[in-house]
């Protein structure tokens, strides 16, 4: 009877899928339960802590290693990597570090990257964008306009707008960057969009950028992109305040 009760208790605490275990270990790493440079507990101990088999633990550690959070070595074990080695542009990693985002200054870093890339992309797009790409930007803008009171839908349209903009630059590096920063951009835009109540200013300037592209106005497109980023600075301040960060 006692054996059955122990098995039942283990089943209750066992996550239903391995992904949950991966997230649980990752979140413990992000919370400094396992600080950078320190070894993780042994496999058997991890099995006991997270209530799963060695197979599940091993698969979870493989995922975490692929994302730069840990590194395993034969006869040494698994060590937590320095935060500089983490793939912070990965969607899963962004989700795991979410509650600790203030420790990474990630929102500010994303904004700095956008400051460097987007004005140039907008200028190139004014010269190079196809009619279909401009139509796609217009569609994304209209979705932003129509969902201005719904931050989730607004963010989806906002992300699509900026993704198409980088693609419309017809710069192969910018296109690659669009894929690389997609998850981080979505995270940053979502943080900003839920932190502000009025998104009308953003809707207006995004619409003006679409019009500048239609008119093949390179200087106007760059100006609109810079004004979008000025708004992003304002919204970033609101997002940082919302997550309890002080400058």
UniProtKB/TrEMBL annotation:
Coiled coil: none annotated. Pfam families: FCD, GntR. InterPro entries: GntR_C, TF_FadR/GntR_C, Tscrpt_reg_HTH_GntR, WH-like_DNA-bd_sf, WH_DNA-bd_sf. PROSITE patterns: HTH_GNTR. The keyword Glycoprotein does not apply. This is FadR family transcriptional regulator. The keyword Transcription applies. It comes from the Bacteria. It comes from Rhizobium anhuiense. SMART domains: FCD (SM00895), HTH_GNTR (SM00345). Residues 15-83 form the HTH gntR-type domain. Keywords: DNA-binding, Transcription, Transcription regulation.
